[in-house]
Amino acid sequence: MKLTFGEKIRNLREDADMNQTQLGNAVGMTQRKISYIECGKYEPGIDDIVSLCKFFKVSADFLLGVDD
């Protein structure tokens, strides 16, 4: 089963033992925005994707489901 973008972000965040506020602070987003991304209510822009990729050291292909 393929994970959604938000599910991947949630898993990466939990693997890093962070809460949404901590992740938001680390990547320049609010806790609410992280929450909305994780539950699929917000589609992140390119800048958001780049920030998350850099922070978690993963490729955009991985987050976007191109290459799992």
Structural description of this entry:
By secondary structure, the chain is mainly α. The chain has one domain: lambda repressor-like DNA-binding domains (434 Repressor (Amino-terminal Domain), Orthogonal Bundle), CATH 1.10.260. Helices cover 65% and strands 0% of the residues. α1 crosses α3 (31-39) and α2 (20-27) packs across α3 (31-39). The mean pLDDT is 95.
CATH homologous superfamily, by name?
lambda repressor-like DNA-binding domains
| Overall average pLDDT | 95
| CATH architecture grouping | Orthogonal Bundle
What fold name stands as the CATH topology? Answer: 434 Repressor (Amino-terminal Domain)
Looking at how many chains there are and whether they match, the oligomeric state comes to single chain
How many strand units? 0
Number of separate structural domains: 1
CA(first)-CA(last) distance: 11 Å
Bin the helical content.
Answer: 55-70%
Q: Helix count?
A: 5
Strand content: under 5%
Radius of gyration: 11 Å
Helix/strand order: HHHHH
Can you summarize the main beta sheet?
A: none
Structural category is mainly alpha
The CATH top-level class label: Mainly Alpha
Quick one: overall form?
A: globular
List the helices and strands and how they pair.
Elements: H1 5-15, H2 20-27, H3 31-39, H4 46-56, H5 60-64
Helix pairs in contact: 1-3, 2-3
Which key features would you list for this structure?
68 residues, mainly alpha, 434 Repressor (Amino-terminal Domain), 5 helices, globular
Quick rundown:
This protein is an all-alpha fold and 68 residues long. Helices cover 65% and strands 0% of the residues.
